[in-house]
Amino acid sequence: MDDRALVDAFEATTLAADDFPHAAHVRVGWYYLRHFPMLDAMARFKTALQRFATAKGKPDRYHETITIAYLVLIAERLVDARGLTWDEFAARNPDLFTWTPSILARYYSEETLASDRARQVFVLPERSATAHSAAE
Questions:
Q1: What is the mean pLDDT of the chain?
Q2: Reported pTM
Q3: 3-state secondary structure 29-76
């Protein structure tokens, strides 16, 4: 499925839940961030993701901190990679696709990401990626 077809099916909620794994979330976020200013992309993705989760009977699955943090990471990676295709971008950024452990473990404790607060509102990172890497 090409980028636009994936986004269209996601927005229309016609995409099967099983056809929207973590990598597809990243791909749709990448698409929005390439086509819209960052704040618009975030708002569009959040609204569409909440609608998708509700349509699939899982409205409680939406997680604000995870969603926004991933979009910020993708946006940062796009600074020098806006012209790359999806496959090129994905190959250059494999750490965005590992769910366990997630790249967010560099910035957040498990407790924070599991909290109701982080699910409902964006929580700023607790630590820097460099501080976490040095502690390992």
A1: 93
A2: 0.91
A3: HHHHHHHCCHHHHHHHHHHHHHHHHHHCCCHHHCCHHHHHHHHHHHHH
